[in-house]
Write a structure and sequence with these properties.
homodimer, alpha/beta, Rossmann fold, six-stranded parallel sheet
Chain lengths: 547, 547
């Protein structure tokens, strides 16, 4: 469970997590084309004869000095799975990312900032450039103060809060010189550093490469790379929600315009849902005055056309199923099952970071309302909440944990029976137990206020053995794919969520099975390999890729 | 100053306020057609040969028992001015509105719920139906409990908060059975009551009438009236911001869908700005799945086409100028001027209700930053803030007043010199002094988080004698018309607002004059008469009005 242990908030930046215990990547050529417009065919990366440069903040490996010995550990996240798989099939791929640990910096310096070569089967290993199947990784060292501004002031929380609608606008934000400086000397400066690194890799390949940028850390990179390398093809995937123009007006115009113009340096800007893609175009229209086409999903900027596209990310189903069958998970599953059988209870599960966007407090309020409304359930239901503490340096997050504790204490004080508390709150990462809980729970609760995709929903339906019902917020990206096979939750309505939980718990077995099977089929058909293959297909079609 | 005294939050519902001291209505036929598309010509209501039924929550008169004597007082608001003017020119107009006072209820009962006749020149008077120029008013009595749910739970705060982006989404709202019941038995029920009253007036006129509905209290009325009176022509003016679909997802789908379908019962739905109109269509598309046309600004619902239109409301300039010349205002002006001259100080003014949407706390923070950054201004500048307490029964509003007091105390503690505090906070209505302050101030501060129009901006530039610079939030409706002639403020950026105030205070006299004159010209050219005339023109063009 190497990958899981790595998903530690102290060492790995927060990003959507998925189960990637081992490589075991579904070959892109294997995936099927269901649930997609017929005209789009996924592209087999093996047929792509162009160099690919990937940029993400989080690296696919992290080096550490463990008792004097350098160890490499695989980074978590669906992106790592997908792109390691991609890299294995292309003749030339380099992954540009941040040197996050001190040992990463040491490695980067030893290689004078140029790419290193790492094999990713089993424990990652630094190898010679000639090694077959090795992944090229360029670890970029970033000035510590600039990185703190970039990461701790602008990316999280500012962009995260804007894009998830988390500001209490009557009272915050209050932007001042501190934020302006952090933008200029942090976000802009770090984006320039990474644009330099990416441009360097493009230039080394004669100026023609496909560049795939990732997430809210790097909105300015595309435009900078294009200025230096005009023949490049650029795409940017935004992994978090993209709200409409109203929300972006929270930022002063110089910031929001530079972020948008930065993204418009791409050929394709990609999102998880149609709603986010449309919001992006509406921003270009309303905040920049550009001409957009909502049928073709394009925006015109000078002579260039930028296309907005939708590719819902997914999980590596086979890898997760393998994890679910592992000894570690089976042991936890046995423990959980005994506990439930002894209590003659049913199980609601949630797995989240303690991010206000996950709507954890309202989830417990809804559970309390469920018990208020249905006394017959008291003592007969457990709510197991795996909540990984997150961003405790952000005051709103620290307070949010307190609020979680407060509501859990009240509900448990009111409804503990025979020494058994209804809510089991676990404020630490425990992926094997979480997977075991997915497998035997009755309901999975995902009630996010806003959520780019939410992979918990996809994980749970993929390994459920008891036809868990997905209770899924309409404001998750996953709802666009899975909403028809879930009990939809409206995240600000406590009563509706309580009623939704009751509906999920009392649903006839045959209906539970139908829903779960349909959802699992969709997840399997559109797994993470297809996510990438369709992006490559569109990039080929839209830009021609110099052919 | 009868109309002003009436603008008392305890007796009059909160609505945009404008200066309407006396009737003195600009004849619609006098207004000019500048600043408008050439193809649209305003319609002279005198040429309109159709009955008009107006619905607003607030009445154009309020009756009170004053020591055993029934007195009628004119309601405040630009709407009253515009529509009283309209009514005077049409052969048949009736205004449907809520019986707000106990005496209103008594009057309504005496007339068995049918329309009363009131003359509006000078003090309003109940008169015989035959009286020339009398306004027909139908005062509708509403069940007290239903009204409390309609007004105190749904309209304010729920719809107000959604439409102004004021919810702290991580923590509120928490909708439950209370809100569902308030919607069903309050908002829906009161809308039905008013739809009945309107339908009755339509039927009395043979089923053909032009119905003009107003504001967020009555989103459900149009559809109900249309069902009963299929030949009717309906328009609805939304006086507050209309945000994009993201914001409406705060409401559970049954509520938001019913509100939208209710509004789609109209022929025209009208807003202050293009942005609000576009957001409305995007809601119809995204939340209802309807087909929209953003070029024609229409939405298709079944066989009907609903048009979204933009008409920025304004003030009655002549009436305000008359007020500014009144003895009451001149006396206050002399006092203020003496005070400023003695202090050799310049003056910043703001006039608002204590509504969090007005962004009052950040305004004071920006003023503090201005003094921090420019010590030479300390002792040389006064900030006169007229803040009318508002909705103190809503906890967020009560807390907001406390926060205002807190920041004012700190700034005054830090920057009082020679016994003179820089901020003069007046938590009561004093329109004559506010108009005097408009006349002689250097800067008018309007930094709203969100604001449908904001008439303070229009009032101030219309009566300024010292070329006041308008410091105006980009998030006000007024900014679409006046932004080019103002210092634009970004409401979440304290530093930018401080810099904006400094820019306004240090602007060369000739530039101040140019800006003020241009803004005043726009306000005069597009005054409240034109606001109405263009609506009538579009309604005639779009529906034909049975011709």
């Amino acid at each position: 469970m190497t990958a899981i242990a790595d998903d530690d908030p102290a060492t790995v930046p927060d990003e959507p997590r998925t189960a990637v215990p081992d490589v075991h990547h579904t070959a892109v050529s294997d995936v099927q084309n269901e649930e997609r417009p017929a005209q789009r065919n996924p592209v087999d990366p093996g047929e792509l004869d162009v160099p690919v440069i990937v940029l993400s903040h989080r690296a696919p490996v992290a080096f550490r000095d463990e008792g004097g010995r350098r160890r490499a550990r695989r980074g978590a996240g669906g992106l790592v799975t997908a792109l390691v798989g991609l890299a294995g099939q292309l003749h030339d791929t380099v992954w540009v990312c941040a040197a996050s640990t001190e040992e990463d910096v040491a490695v980067a310096r030893e290689h004078k900032g140029s790419a290193i070569y790492v094999t990713m089967t089993g424990e990652p290993k630094l190898v010679d450039p000639e090694t077959t199947g090795a992944l090229q990784i360029r670890l970029v060292e970033v000035d510590r103060a600039a990185h703190e501004d970039f990461y701790g002031v602008i990316s999280n929380p500012m962009l995260w809060f804007v894009q998830h609608g988390l500001y209490d606008l009557a009272h915050s934000p209050n932007f001042g010189q501190r934020e302006r400086d952090a933008f200029e000397h942090g976000y802009v400066s770090v984006n320039e550093t990474f644009a330099d690194a990416v441009s360097h890799e493009v230039e080394e390949r004669g100026g023609r490469a496909l560049v795939m940028l990732h997430d809210y850390h790097f909105y300015l990179v595309a435009d900078l790379v294009r200025q230096r390398c005009p023949d490049v093809v650029l795409s940017h995937f935004v992994h978090i929600p993209w709200p409409g123009p109203d929300a972006w007006r929270i930022l002063p115009p110089d910031m929001r315009e530079r972020l948008l113009f930065g993204l418009l340096g791409n050929d394709v800007v990609a999102f998880h849902t149609e709603r986010f893609a449309r919001n992006f175009l509406l921003c270009a229209q309303e905040l920049l005055g550009l001409s957009i086409n909502l049928d073709k999903m394009t925006v015109q900027i000078g002579k260039r056309t930028v296309t907005a596209r939708t590719y819902p990310i997914s999980i590596d189903v086979d890898a997760l199923v393998e994890t679910a069958g592992s000894k570690a998970v089976r042991n936890r599953l046995d423990d959980l099952e005994q506990w439930l059988v002894a209590a003659d209870a049913r199980l609601i599960v949630r797995v989240d970071r303690t991010d206000p966007s996950k709507n954890i407090v309202r989830g417990f309020l809804a559970f309390e309302k469920l018990l208020d409304d249905h006394p017959e359930l008291v003592g007969k239901i457990r709510f197991l909440a795996f909540l990984q503490p997150s961003r405790l340096d952000v005051p709103e997050y620290a307070e949010y944990i307190g609020q979680i504790g407060s509501v859990v204490a009240r509900v448990n004080a009111r409804y503990t029976r025979h020494g058994e508390a209804p809510i089991d709150l676990r404020l630490h990462e425990d992926f094997p137990t979480a997977v075991a809980a997915y497998a035997i729970c009755d309901v999975v609760l995902v009630n996010s206020i806003a959520d780019g995709m939410n992979l918990v929903a996809k994980e749970a339906v993929s390994v459920s053995r008891r036809d868990a019902v997905l209770a899924l917020s309409e404001n998750t990206g996953a709802h666009e794919e899975l909403g028809a096979f879930a009990v939809t939750l409206y995240p600000f309505d406590i009563q509706q969520q309580a009623d939704g939980l009751y509906e999920a718990l009392t649903m006839p077995a045959i209906r539970r099975r139908e829903l779960r099977q349909a959802a699992a089929d969709i997840v399997r058909a559109n797994d993470v390999g297809k996510w990438l293959a369709f992006q490559l297909a569109d990039l080929t079609e839209i830009t021609g890729l110099w052919s």
